[in-house]
Amino acid sequence: MTSEVKDFLEDYRKEAELKELNYLYHKAAFSKDHSRYQGAENDHRMPYKRDVDRIVHSKAYSRYVDKTQVVYLVRNDHISHRSLHVQLVSNFSRGIAEILRLNLDLVEAIALGHDVGHPPFGHEGEGYLNKISLEMGEGSFAHPAQSCRVYSMIEPLNLGLNVFDGFLCHDGGMASPVVEPSFGKTWERHFEELEQKKSDPNSNILPGTLEGCLVKICDTMSYLGRDIEDAISLGILTRSDVPDWEMGSTNREILSYLAQDVIRNSYEKDYIAMSERAYELLKELRKFNFEKIYNHPKLKVESDKIRNSYRIFFQHLLDDYKKNGESSYLWSHFLYNKDPDYYKSASAAQLVIDYISGMTDNYFVRTLETIFVPTRIEL
Question: Superfamily assignment of 3-299 in CATH?
Fold first, then answer.
């Protein structure tokens, strides 16, 4: 890089930081306060924008395309997968953040990366893997903590503290109509909260930024209406089955109502909030989805097979790795290109959990077939 180009980019960066100071809400996350655990890095991009770029170019992000959102093992190109879900969360939360004058790049980074820790077959698979993890003495498996582990240990990206914090704290958005940030978090506190999440996956940890709080509630808002549209496409529901709520009955109507409500109740506030009425309606919608969609028997016909597959698959990979080491399946398909600091710092059981949790749904099934299903022998 020539000195002329370097000077130009440095001037651009300074100008961009000044624009932030003049435009963003005074409690927003400013780029000047961005913190990387392994130290700051020089770049012409704003640091949270750099975090976004690293996430979208990561291998974990590319695997979203075949990770279940709600419906698995169904051939329908219009059903939501994780890749679409995180984009919808990003789009929805950014639209609100722009009006609230929050850091759009931080919102996008949290939204796009928050679910990389999800294992195959969504929350159902998470439950099966959690049980195995507890039995093996590895503590609870919780996808928010695993998302942090993916980008700090398995595929380390040296992201900002507020990005990791947003990942860890993104669940539990329905606990209250008001989400008030715990400002001023440090790396030490983040590591303490990681351990807290591993000990109690249901702990509702508050983010350290308004941006993290916004993604926390937008995550829930973004999928409920969309899941109704998916259920209608699959024939599980008809449009007439959906109650005519005050906020509407279509995804577009629901999101419009909720966005306006959050903006009205959060503008120039040091917290992110929705009205009590919107909160009650959202709880009704969530209850409806659980009763009519998420626990629908048509979507659970393969559950026993998936549960048994998780257990058999885990035990085989663990036994094989303990016996064969660098000649094992786990090594040749997962560990061979990892940093020694990663695999030397984890137990064999944790390494297998990491491998399985990073799989897409189809890769999980294909790997099972490769290992356990006999094929024709050509003589």
Answer: Hypothetical protein af1432 (1.10.3210.10)
